[in-house]
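User: I'm putting together a small comparison set for a docking exercise, and I want a reference complex before I start. The sequence is below, and the ligand is magnesium ion. Could you produce the 3D structure with the ligand included, as structure tokens?
Assistant: Of course. I'll restate your input first, then give the structure tokens for the complex.
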Amino acid sequence: MSLPSKKQSLQRPKGTQDIFGEVMAQWHHVERIAHKLFGRFGYQEIRTPCFESTDLFLRGVGETTDIVNKEMYTFEKGDRSLTLRPEGTAGLARAFIEQGMSRWAKPVKLYYMGAMFRYERPQAGRQRQFHQVGMELYGMDTPAADAEVIFMAIMLFKQLGLPGLTLKINNIGTPSDREQFKADLKQHLKPVLPNLCEDCQTRYAQNPLRLLDCKQDSCKAHYQEPAIKTFLETDFTGAASQADFNTLLDTLDKLGIPYQRDPYLVRGLDYYTKMVFEITSSHLGAQNTVCGGGRYNELVEELGGSATPACGWAVGLERLVSLIAKTTIPVPDYYIVTDCHAEALMLATEIHQCGFSAEVDLSQKAFGKQLEKAFKVNARQVILLGEADAKQDQLTCKNVVTAEQSTLSRQQFLEQLKKSC
Ligand code: ATP
Ligand code: MG
């Protein structure tokens, strides 16, 4: 491996981002709201590895999916094939089995946040390293569980004040419901097969349901042809799937959650059963899906666990963050100008305990220079803590706007602070 010359500047890999400054403040805002929402509904956070055995994704995501066929970052180490996780659900299901969570009280409610990796063509809303927040509910196959899962996605977006969202929902039945449908679908599409894109040719042979997931307008146009359209829009699912789906829609109506039924919605991954949904935003460009989810009753068993129904969703954080109003970087409530740093750090901690933010100037420069810095970071208040003050256990508090200042004992200052919060 040859090293670049020292002068050559190094750049981040294509399709990745440095997240910092105001955008980071937006991420924190989203993450805080998500942690709170999940916690209140009884979901536990889980952190699984960023890489897993390649087999997990072959079996858990499906060998005929775009993710497995084209998008995985796979590498060999020793005699093992490992893959950077392209999504979170397979890893969580693996952990569910490995950690014996099937013995926990049902339902087992988990959520996660973290980086995912897919080798895709980078463009607006599509990176090679991106982040997802997602939730999974294991051990219950009820429309009530489906409804909670969708409700929580909607609540997350509501609490973030997101505009222009549409919930699209479909029932794709059980794998046995789908067998006949797949054969009939192939029959209906046979005449137009030569006109479909290259990927669709493969899908036709390997996993015909996913023909409906194609994003090419030229392919999608064929599904609007009357005979194909009528076929696609006829419900092929069995009575049990239909009954659960209708109860779910009824619950969404009662919750006042508007939705569009979309018979073309199948989702990209193989493991879905019964209800699937996506939430799109009219404020995003071509990559307009912010959330994708559904039920996957076969997944845990497919990965070697005991049969366990499950449902959940994942939200793309980059797309979500791009939808929320700009948040400003938080400014410190107090900026401590000082030449005795140990005392200043102790004071900052006491201020934090009262619920305020406080930063200590670490420059060891003259107080005038430190005051300039306090103005620069837009601190709301400045505290002057000189060595002599510290000895007498007092400090001077200066209002940045009015320039008024008063000297008081540290005790008095902290008492005032406690009263004001
Ligand atoms: P898309 O149709 O946009 O490729 P997908 O069906 O592949 O999405 P999922 O696997 O359902 O996506 O992932 C859930 C969410 O993660 C998506 O709705 C999207 O918000 C986000 N996401 C997926 N792939 C990327 C990516 N490459 N870059 C940024 N966000 C992504
Ligand atoms: Mg994709």
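The longest strand covers residues 108-117. The chain has a mean pLDDT of 92.
User: Thanks, that's exactly what I needed.
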